[in-house]
Amino acid sequence: MTTRRALLGLLGVAAGVGAVPAATSCRREPDRDEAGRAPGPEPVPGDVLVVELAGGALAVVDAAHGRMLVGPAPGVLTGDGGRLVRTERPAEAITRLTSHRLPDGTLVSGGTLAGRLAVRATSPDGALVALATDAGPGHSPYRPGPRERTTIVVADSAGERRRLELPGNLEPEAFASGGQALFVLDYLPPTRPDRYRVRVVDLASGELQPLLTRTKSAVPPGAEEEMRGEGRQAVHDRRRNRLFTLYTHQPDHVHTRDRIAGARRDAPHVHAFVHTLSLDERWAFCVDLPAPFGERAAGGHAIVSDPDGTALYVVDVGTGSLARIDPDGLVVTGTLRFEPPAGSAGGPPVASAAFAEPAVLLVGAGREVVGVAASAGGETVRRWSTPADVRGLAGPADGTRLYVGQPDAVLRVDPADGTVRQRIDVPGLVGLRRVVTGD
Q1: What CA–CA distance (Å, rounded) separates 222 from 259?
Q2: For the chain, what is the mean pLDDT?
Q3: Residues 374, 375, 379, 384, CA torsion sign
Q4: Rounded to whole angstroms, how far apart are CA atoms 113 and 206?
Q5: How many CA atoms lie within 13 A of 207 on its CB side?
Q6: pLDDT tens-digit series, residues 22-53
Q7: b/e string for 310-332 if b means 16 or more Cβ within 10 A?
């Protein structure tokens, strides 16, 4: 029998736990421009980069010196960007769970759990962590392997808090406010999943329940949305405590409100929408996006919130389309067209988006970045090129600097004209996920 001691492991932070050998540090060459001139401005102290490496592993890199603060492992970044929660497998049937404070990367808690588990979701501050059965290589929360039952473990800094053995093929998505319930993706059919619905697990009873409608009434049996999505991206709105998730390509999808009230004439023409999940009130609502959103490659779409949290924007670089969404009224308040960046020569364009300042939305694809006046008609106010394909855009909300993901590197650039100020080598980089500042 597995003892509680074996399950919980350590509570405190042991010296040397989670340390990364110097040999794994990322090397940064002196910065020189294309003409070989002397290094530019000094690196910005305090910035750290959350990067994705091969296989979906996340790591944390000090932008000032290129030093790896937290080594690569499967992980989840908290909604507030203050924690990175990781899992490692020291033995076949043991999962080690660690939580690292950002921006310094300090290990703040760690422990061991029984079973092959993968971290899937955290509470906004990282105090609670949800893990689920690890389906193995080639599978993800949005492309799960077949299974009839799922183990879900909820843990905190003291170790395992709740273990549930539930029927079905489930993947944790987010905690409800207060940590008493967990939203999950319920894949159907469990052994051959091709669609899913969002449900909520009461952590005290272990009961699976449907969501509420936006009017806070119970969804009638058989009226729950069953989604067939591609190209998922999500934005956590901390002020409203809502999760906005972009879905594209929904040929057979019918919203809950249409299942209850009857299909609308325009429903068959909707190929993309933003799924809104209230973490406080446990309801869901879908904001339909007009054509041509969702008609091109899923990877060419991105969703981003403006720095003030007053609007959400969905961009489609395949058609040069931009939609503005009111996060309170949950309606599309306007669409516009812009001249998109040139796509990658190696395949369909992959979109990245970030705000350089409150009024300028930067959109990257292929080897170009364009600045769009998002709230003033979509005029292109800047355009510049990058040495290689863009693999993510991120920067602080004040717009003073921008980091651009590249194959095996991250560039710090001037967001006004793309001038490279610094290059940080990150071998194996797949994408730049976030910048966390120490300001």
Answers
A1: 8
A2: 84
A3: negative
A4: 19
A5: 5
A6: 333 333 344 444 444 344 566 777 899 999 99
A7: ebbbbbbbbbbbbbbbebeebeb
Contact (Cβ atoms closer than 8 angstroms) between residue 325 and residue 365: no
Structure-token pair, residue 405 = 């993901």
Single-letter residue type at 198: V
Domains, the chain: 88-210 (no CATH), 225-439 (2.130.10.10)
What is the number of other CB atoms lying within 10 angstroms of the CB of residue 338?
22
Return the bridge partners of 127, or none: none
Distance CA 109, CA 11 (A): 6
Side chain identity, residue 6: A
168 SS3 class: coil
Amino acid at 191: T
Residue 226 tokens, joined: 């069953």
HSE of 94 in the Cβ direction (CA atoms, 13 Å)?
Answer: 12
Query: pTM for the complete prediction?
Result: 0.84
CB atoms within 10 A of CB 257: 17
- Is the pLDDT at 19 greater than 70, yes or no? no
